Queue: 3 jobs
Job 1
Amino acid sequence: QSSPDNGGTCSVANTSSTQQGSTDMNLLSGNEPKNLTDKVVAGINDGTYTSHAGSSSLDFNRTKVYKVTSGDQTFTSVTVPTNGDYTTTSNFTALFDKDGNSLNYSETLYSQGPSGTFHLDKYANGHMSESKDTDVQYKTNQQISQEDTQNSSDGATTYKSTGDKVACVASVLGVSGTVGYLIVGACAGACAAGEIGVTIPVCVACIGG
C-alpha cells in the first residue's frame, strides 16, 4: 500500500474494450498546488463553488493536490478536508484540466446517522446526488485514526471484491479499514467500468484525499 504523501501508480482495466490503462497519481508541492488551492478558495468566496459544509468547515491548510495522468489525459485534483460536524474522509474536491481550467467539483460529507451508522451526503457541482444511511457502524475520527495505525488488511480485500478502480485509487491514497468501506459505498458507481479518461478523474474526485 502506497503512502498518500508519495503518490503512486496503479493499473486498471478498461472493461469496455480489451485495452488496459495506467493511472498515475502524484502529490504536488510548490507553486502549482498553491495556485490551484487559491482558485478553489476564490471560487468558494465568490460563489463559483458551493460548499454545503460551509467555508468555515473547509480546512485549506490540509489541502492535497494530485496530478492524475490517465492514458493521454492529465487532470489535477484539489481536495480540501472538511472539519466541524463531519467525520474523516469528508471533503470538497475540485478537478482541473491540464491548463488549470475548472472541470467539475464534488463534495462528500459523512456524519452520524440516527441509527448509529455513517450517514452520507454527496453533492456534484453543488447539487445533491445522494443522501443515505450506510450500513457501516459510526466511529469517531479518533477511532478511525487508531484503526488505520493497525494496518488492517480487511479494507484491501473489500476493495478487490467491489471494483479495481476503487482498489487502485484508494490504495494510492493509503486508506483502509472503515475508510475503505466508506469509499466503496460512496464511490463504487463513480469508479464503475467505462472509458478510463472519464471515469478515473470522476473516481478520484469521489474518493478525494
Job 2
Amino acid sequence: SGEIITDPVATSPVAKPATQTTQSPSTSTPSKISAPPSANAAPANKGIIFSTKNTQSNDYAIIFGGKPSKSYGAIYMQKQCERYLPNKNVIYSNFENTVESVIEAANQKFGKNINVTSVSGWSKGGQNAWNVIGKYPFVGLMDPSVPSNVTPQITANNVGLSVSRYRNGGYAKRAVQLFQQSKIPFVEAGEYHYMAGGAFLKKYANRL
C-alpha cells in the first residue's frame, strides 16, 4: 500500500538498467542483484561527484548509486536526480564508499566541515543509507538493498521509502515490511527497479 507516482524517467532509455526485462512480470522475472563487492572494490574517495549550487551553504545531501558503479554509480545518479534538486547541494557517490569517507573527502575538498542534511541510496546504495538511519536528519531509501543484520528504529520524520513492484529482486521487501509494521506510508514507484529514484525524489526532494 503506497502512493502511486508515475516517473517521467521511466520513458528515458538511458535510465533503464540492462538487467531489467521489458516483458510482463508474469512471464519474466528480472535478475536479482549480485553478491556484495569483493575486496578489490573501488577504494574510498573514488567515484564521488560534488554538485554545489549554493557556495554560501555548508549543507549537503549525500546520494549513493547502485551496482555496478560503472553503469549505475555516482554519474548515473547525478543524471537522474539533478532535475529534482536544482537548488540543493548534493554529493553523489558510488556505493563502495562509506558515508564517513564521502564526508572526509568533502571536508578535504572544501577546507571546512560540511553539514550532512540527508543520506539516500538507490538499489545497492540503499544499504549505505539503511545503515545510518537515525544518525542523520533524514535517510532516503530507493528500492534499497537491505542488510538482514540491521533493524533500525524508523519514524515518518527520519526516513522515506520508494519501491517498485519488482522490489529490487526481493532485497527491498524487508524495508517494506518494516514500514508496514511501523504504519509509515511509502511510495509505490511503478513496475521496474529504475523507476524508484525519480518517484522518491518527487515525494521527498524537499526533505533532502
Job 3
Amino acid sequence: DGTLEVGNEQGPQLRLDRCLASINDRPLKMHGLISGVGTSRFLVDLELRADGVEVAPLVEVLPPLQASKLSGRLNANAAVNYARAEAQNMSLDGRVEIDRMHVELGGMILKEGSMQLALQNNRLVLEKLQAQLNGQVLALRGNVSNLPIIDASLFCSSPDLDIDRLIDSGRRRAAQPGPAAELKASEEATSRPLPTALQQAQLSLSIE
C-alpha cells in the first residue's frame, strides 16, 4: 500500500508516501523523501518502522549497498531528518536493532552480529555491537555525534583481539581476485560519491 515515486531532477530521488510492505510476512512501513544522493543537495527526511524484517531483499534493490552483502533481521522505529547543506540541524529519533548481521566492506567481514542503536538528536548511541570481525570476537559500544565534524568515543572489548592479524586478514581478503562481475560491481560501488557531510573526524577508542 502507499505511493512510491522515483525521480532524477536534482540527483536520484525517492519519495515514499505512507508505504506499507510485507517481506517474508513481516511488516515494513516507510514515509518520507530521499533525494540528491551523491550531491551537495543530499536530503533524508524519513520515518521507518520495521518488525523483524529481513534486510537482504531490501539490499537487492539498493545498488549502493549491494557490494556490502548486508543481511540480517531489522527492528526499527526511527525518524531521520538530515540535509547536507544544513547538517548542523540534523535530527535523529528512535531505535534501530539488527540481529544475525552480516556485512562485507574493504576486505573486512563482519558476521553473526547483533547491534542496538539509539538515535538521539544529532547523536548515535551504540548501545551494543557484538560480532565476529574477520574471525575475531569483539564487542563495541559508545557514541558518535556532531555531524558534520564527527566526534566518536568507542569502547572495544575482546577475549582474543589481535590488531595485526585483523588488519592483515582484511588486506588479504581485499587483494583476492574475484569474478569479473563482482569486481566491477565493487569498483563501481566504491567510486560513487558518498551521501555524507563528513568534514573531519575525531575518534577516541579504548580496547580491553
